[in-house]
Amino acid sequence: MNDGASVARQVDILALTFLILRVRLLSAWHRVRVHGRVGWLVPLIALVTPLSYVGLMSQALWELHRRATISLPDADQLAVTLMVVAVIAASFANRLAGGLSLLATVPENELFLARPVSLSRLAVARVLASTLADPVGALFLLPLWTAPILVWGLSGWALLLSVAVSVLVQITITGCAQLADLLLSRWVRPHHRARFAVALRLVATAALALLWIAGTQVLRAPQEFMSHALALRPWLGVGPAHWPTAALLAWRHGNTSGVFMAMLGLALAAAAALAATSSAAKLVSRQGWEEPAPVWTPRVSAEPGAILTPWRRELRLLARDRGRLALIFLVPATFLAVPLLTSQGWAWTSASPSRIAMLVFSMLVYLAASGPLLHMQGEQRAFWILQTVPVSLARLFAMKAAVWSALFVLISSSSFLVLVLAAGGGSTGSLVGTSALLVGGSVGLAFLAVGLGATAVDLTEPARPALGPASFYAFLFVAGLYNVALAEQASVALRGAVMFAVATAATWHSGLARARWAHDPEEVRRQEPRASDAALLAMVVFLAPFATERLPIAAVEVFTTLLHGGVLWMGLRLLWHWRASLRPARGVVWVVCAAALGAGLSRCFAVSPPGEVVSNGVLPTWVPVVLAIAAREVCLRGVVQGAAEHLSCAAAASKKAPRWTAFAVGVGVSVSLELLIAREHSWSPVALGLTAAVIRAATGRVAAATAFRCALVLSGLLG
Amino acid sequence: MIRTIGLSKRYGDKLALNALSLEVRAGEVMGFLGPNGSGKTTTMRLLMGLLRPSAGEATIAGLDCVRDSVALKQKVGYLPDEPFLYPYLTGLEMLELGAGLHGKKAAAARKTARAAAERVELDETSLRATTSTYSLGMRKRLALALAILHEPEVLILDEPTNGLDPRGARQMRALMEEEATRGHTVLVSTHLLDAAERLCHRVAIIRSGSLQLVGAPAHLRAEAAAKGLPAQDLEALFLGITEAAP
Predict the structure, then answer these.
(1) B14 touches chain A (CB under 8 A)
(2) Which pLDDT band holds residue A555 (cuts at 50, 70, 90)?
(3) How far is CA B24 from the centre of its chain?
(4) Which residue among A52, A276, A596, A718 is least crowded, i.e. fewest CB within 10 A of its CB?
(5) For residue A551, is pLDDT > 50?
């Protein structure tokens, strides 16, 4: 594909970047417009996840800052550098491993290459456009940098600096990944590319395992990091590993020329990556460019085997999906090898059975995201076959989940055993208890992945990918909750495990309901309450205190205000979408009556604000209180109770059960979840939750329940 | 206008196209016929520079399909068998993207997009809908509009009538005739043999990657009849050639 004499007639790189960027942004906009229902999840998780990382990192840096000794005054700087290097390595390795499928069989390539666009310009424009169109990817270093900016008290300009660094690093990473992709696609024979893919996946998994261990050590055991930091100093203090953090450190020390030189270095690295990508594209297309075949080509023929049962079908699908099969062996092996063969993080990882279980479970979450969840992507296209056989979808899905459960239990038990034997220690009771929790989590994980995969299905548009980022984020989010069950004390662990079970069951229920009518555009577009949405929002409220308690006091008010504001917005958005399905609310006068009831009761009982609310004087005292109460009420009384009422009504309608049963179920579910979420178990959460739920059930108004609780708390608070 | 000399393509051990030598003249509609898997799509993708030839060469309007593939695409419009459309772009946005890739600025791109949509009779409502809601026929029309929006001298159409209703298929044929009367060249693959017989100036029949026959339908039928082969229509001739023992 020689540019030759046609260079002047081609669209230039900036214009091409703009065109691709426009396509990405318009597509995203239309997707949100058409599927507004799932649109709430991505922003919610995009808000909560970085905030949590900022919180955890700030706490770790405060700890390092406080404990810094004369021999190691720069421990916090080393920690920041280590985390940044680990994140960049993992990001690069993943881009590289995913790159082999970036060019192969991407249908948009034909659209572009059938027009006067050379491969070299397309490759460079795509790197730039994909960086600019993906704010999560482009700003991937921002959460890590926000923490030191807060802890070191740097100005807002440092944030802008971190944005620029993050974008430049991402362009370099994506450019290098595209470069490697082009070279491998052109020069490596198809049957050897599979080996490269395995090797790259191995590197990516090892990088993820290192990130997990390095991150865990810095975030959860900063004091232990101090003992290792001296050994890391020669690696992190100079050389390429230092480059991405050099600008921030220079800014911290007021070294303007240092900042300039660091930024210049990063910009040159990004430009070099783009130039190399462009040159490689020109080189590989000199004799004509041809789309490579997919790396993992399925076996073209197979001997007829035993008659397929649902169970056997799952095993056969798995056995023939060679890419995934390789992954299933590689991931556990790498996650076991990294802590066993390196000293990094081993002491922390092996300190107790629960920590070993956390490592194993984290590995399983990664496996499940690449295994059953991704497997549902292909499976959804086969739904029409599944729905024409006389077997219920529930049974077929249960079979799928059972096969993956058995595999996960096998992997988790054996990995746990190997690590426990290597670490030694731990009482029999704790080993048995932890392994039971791990087995339970492994089973739940498989059901969660299959349920969530079905929740997203939409077969009304053939071109639509079955799983989007929302599905993956939601999966990682819900699965991550189980770490609470593994890591915390018994009572909290029990609540975490129950919450995980509730979320899994709700997701399973919603997945089956969605899959049943996945071919019907009316049903797919219908905006009605779903158990999985309610469970997800309840989980955010459940996890909020865990994130808050790890934050430095100075950041708590800002964090909780943002979090409650986010939950409130998401909850109201869901209620707005569901408004046609929820029963009509009574008049505004009921809100006034509920507020009066709350104010009246406040003279008899002293009720304190919700536990997670802390006022540092940044905002008037009543603002975080009202925000916290409103967020909780909209979540529990609006979304959870509303969904429970609606689903009970739908079930009751077919069974001719009275409508009040649905109200009772709604009240029961919302109060039960309130009990799960409450950290202090006294009479007040039960009584208050029950009263608010009854008010909501009687009036149909979330505002009435919110007014009641606000009046009750504020009357006492403000005197 | 289109010329291939000994053009071959091998996928691993399989020879998908075997030394194809073919010429399509300016202002001609050439039907490219063959059973499924005979190498029609491979040939068209080779002409578009989307596949690397194993041997031989191909030129369009004097431009080499490998060496000058970027310049060549200024002159050629391509309709793939299964065209890719971004599901969450509207028809108009897709056409604007196509015009943009041909170097048109925003205002000119919109004007070009509307003109192309008008030629394939895509109405305003369709243009404002996302392509995920399109029927198969509408997708084909939009893809055709994408292929013709830069007024190409050569059109390469892979199964353009697949999925079209009778009216749509007739419009598609009318468009091809109109292109030919304007002096443009059309290479079209199709399984609708009666339509090919009426529309195409010449047809080429390919089987297992090898060219079997090329010529005007009436001439080919006369030749076949002279040899005692079934030749009452193009379909009989096609079946006689493609089902005969190799």
Answers:
(1) no
(2) low
(3) 12
(4) A718
(5) yes
Q: Name the closest residue on chain B to residue A8, using Cα atoms.
A: B71
Rounded CA-CA distance A481/B94 in Å is: 42
For the packed helices A142-151 and A75-103, what is the interaxial angle rounded to 10 degrees?
A: 170
A113 touches chain B (CB under 8 A): yes
Check residue A348 and give its pLDDT: 60
* B242/B236 Cα distance (integer angstroms): 10
Distance CA A405, CA A395 (A): 15
Listing DSSP states for A409-443 in one string gives: HHHHHHHHHHHHHHH----HHHHHHHHHHHHHHHH
Q: How many CA atoms lie within 13 Å of A587's alpha carbon, on the beta-carbon side?
A: 2
Please give the full DSSP string across A190-211, using - where no structure is assigned. HHHHHHHHHHHHHHHHHHHHHH
For the ranges A299-313, B28-42, B56-70, the lowest mean pLDDT is seen at: A299-313
- Report the distance separating Cα B119 and Cα B178, nearest Å: 11
Which H helix or E strand runs over B29?
A: strand B29-33
Instruction: For residue A617, give the 3-state DSSP assignment.
Output: coil
Q: Give the minimum alpha-carbon distance from B150 to chain A in angstroms, rounded to a whole number.
A: 10
Nearest to B87 among A3, A5, A464 (CB): A464
What's the rounded Cα separation, in Å, for the pair A640 and A319?
40
DSSP designation for A392: -
Using an 8 Å CB-CB cutoff, list chain A residues near B101.
11, 16, 19, 112, 115-117
In a domain, B111, yes or no: yes
Domain holding B87, by residue range, is: 82-151
Query: What is residue B113's predicted lDDT score, i.e. its pLDDT?
Result: 94
Predicted local confidence at residue A654, as pLDDT: 59
Please check whether residue B198 lies inside any domain of the structure.
no
Q: Which residue of B has its CA nearest to A118?
A: B70
Contact A84, A273 (CB under 8 A): no
Let me know: does A453 contact A373? Beta carbons within 8 Å: yes
Do residues A362 and A238 lie in contact, with contact meaning Cβ atoms separated by under 8 Å? no
Residue A525 forms contact with B (CB below 8 Å): no
Do residues A441 and A365 lie in contact, with contact meaning Cβ atoms separated by under 8 Å?
no
**Furthest CA-CA distance within chain B:** 60
List residues bridging with B203 in a β-sheet: B31, B215
Domain assignment present for B112: yes
**Would you say residue A2 has pLDDT above 50?**
no
Kindly report the pTM of this predicted structure. 0.71
Q: Is residue B205 part of a domain?
A: no
Domain count, chain B: 1
Task: Assess contact for B66 and A1: CB atoms under 8 A.
Answer: yes
A484: number of Cβ within 10 Å: 18
Give Cα A121 distance to the centre of its chain.
33
A226 compared with A493, residue with greater pLDDT: A493
Name the closest residue on chain B to residue A17, using Cα atoms: B101
Closest Cα of chain A to B220: distance in Å? 33
Model pLDDT for residues B126-137, shown as the tens digit of each residue: 999 999 888 888
Q: Residue A114: which of B50, B90, B133 has the nearest Cβ?
A: B50
Is a pLDDT exceeding 50 seen at residue A104?
no
The answer to whether the Cβ–Cβ distance between A288 and B90 falls below 8 Å is no
Q: Is the pLDDT of residue B121 over 50?
A: yes
Find, in chain A, the residue whose alpha carbon is nearest to that of B49: A288
In angstroms, the CA A500 to CA A487 distance is 14
Distances (CA, A) of B244 to A67, A707, B33, B202, B204: 87, 85, 16, 22, 17
Q: Do residue B74 and residue A6 have CB atoms under 8 angstroms apart?
A: yes
| CA–CA distance, A14 with A258 (Å, rounded to integer) | 30
